[in-house]
Amino acid sequence: MEYKYQIIILGSLTAVIDEITTLLYEKLGELNLQKNFYQIIRNYQVEIDYKGNQPTFVLYFGSQNGKFEDIAIVERLLNEGNIVLPIFYDSFKNEIPEILANQNGLKYELYQKDKIVSLILESFGNLRNTRKIFISYKRDESSSVAIQLYEALEKNNFDVFLDTHSIKQGEPFQDELWHRMTDCDVIVLLNTPHFLESEWCEKEIAEANVKQIGVLQLVWPTNKLASMAEVCFLRQMHPDDFIDGVVDNKDVSRLTDTTLKSIIQKVESIRARNLAARQDNLITEFLNIARKNGKNVSIQPERFITEELALNKRRIFIPSVGIPQSMDYNQSSVLKKEIKEYFVDEVYLIYDNVRIREKWLKHLEYLNEYLDVQTIKKQEFDLWLQKN
Questions:
Q1: In total, how many domains does the chain have?
Q2: Are 147 and 321 contacting, i.e. CB atoms less than 8 angstroms apart?
Q3: Are residues 149 and 256 in the same domain?
Q4: What is the pLDDT of residue 45?
Q5: In this structure, are 146 and 244 located in the same domain?
Q6: What is the model's pLDDT at position 170?
Q7: Are 249 and 217 contained in the same domain?
Q8: Which of 157, 209, 155, 170 is nearest to 187 (CA)?
Q9: What was the pLDDT predicted at 1?
Q10: What's the rounded Cα separation, in Å, for the pair 293 and 189?
């Protein structure tokens, strides 16, 4: 592609902006995305550098003294249909100009830097915009903390799976549990004293290994790290992480606000890294099998695979982490239109079908009959490439 992703920074410029820019480039590195495809544009550069036909995300930093900058630029960008994220520190009403009053703003706190960067990457399709978290816990040891984390993560725009809240009556419990885990980005594991004695909790860790899902272990003060998860991040808990030091009461124990914020920040950080690892696994396996079958395939900087065909044609294969959704189909169809230098003959989503429920696999097969974007299961890569 010839275009760049544009991140425009407007409003009251502070040191926070440099911190967010640095973090953005760190995340691009973790996702194996080429930094030169991303352009940071400050207010004084908009007139020269901004291109209206290229993907754009705008950050507007509010003013605590009510002196609003760059209003004319904001108006122009809104009129051209760009996404603008207002960021305020104390009061949205006092710090954000009237022209952005209808936008959904974000209160800036130190732990929100990762979230801001994730929103940028999500808007460009570099991170899927579903934000799915799975909480694994032992009910008779940590129910109160599990529910507290569920509520805190939901408030921070995560779609959280907690068995007592998330499985509808009448659904096959274990099938639905594995299905939901397959589609999650991070597992938050509450490693309480008898957690590993539970058959299901131990199986959940094993499933995380199979699916290469990142695990954040919150290890209770009297416990040690469970070394069963390959992609595992450890947070050793201490009594002062709990309100009034109450650690082992399943109905009363609760985390402090500071600890909650720290956990949310860590989840946000793990999410991008883990999605990149799962995407890389799909890409590597597909490339190896395709080349074994004599296909002329290449990985592109945007992390999709191309196969060169005759007569200047190509087909593209896009890795889909988790369960393919309607947004994946739509973005893939748009990508087909954006690749102008070649005629794209076919577009495919490649995905890992292990533990996805049979009813959903049948739904994807049904869509293959009617949509121009098709899906290919990881377990059928070899067979498909032999036939096609």
A1: 3
A2: no
A3: yes
A4: 93
A5: yes
A6: 43
A7: yes
A8: 209
A9: 40
A10: 41
pLDDT mean over 253-269: 91
Residue 302 sits at the vertex; the CA angle it makes with 60 and 24, to the nearest 5 degrees, is: 35
Domain of residue 209, residue span: 132-273
- Rounded CA-CA distance 152/42 in Å is 33
Residues 242 and 301 in one domain: no
pTM, two decimals, is: 0.70
Of 123, 140, 175, the residue that ends a domain is 123
pLDDT, tens digit, 9 for 90 and up, residues 158-195: 889 886 544 454 444 566 677 777 788 888 999 898 88
Local structure of residue 341 (DSSP, 8 states): S
Query: In angstroms, how far apart are the furthest CA atoms of the chain?
Result: 71
Q: HSE of 260 in the Cβ direction (CA atoms, 13 Å)?
A: 18
C-alpha separations of 51 from 6, 9, 177, 180 in Å: 8, 15, 45, 40
Domain boundary among 245, 273, 301: 273
At a CB cut-off of 8 Å and minimum separation 6, what does 317 contact? Answer: 286, 297, 304, 305, 306, 307, 348, 349, 350, 376
Q: Are 137 and 263 within one domain? A: yes
Q: Are residues 175 and 246 in the same domain?
A: yes
Question: CA-based angle 229:231:234, to the nearest 5?
Answer: 80
Task: With cut-offs at 50, 70 and 90, classify the pLDDT of residue 248.
Answer: confident
By C-alpha distance, which of 11, 14, 18, 16 is closest to 85? 11
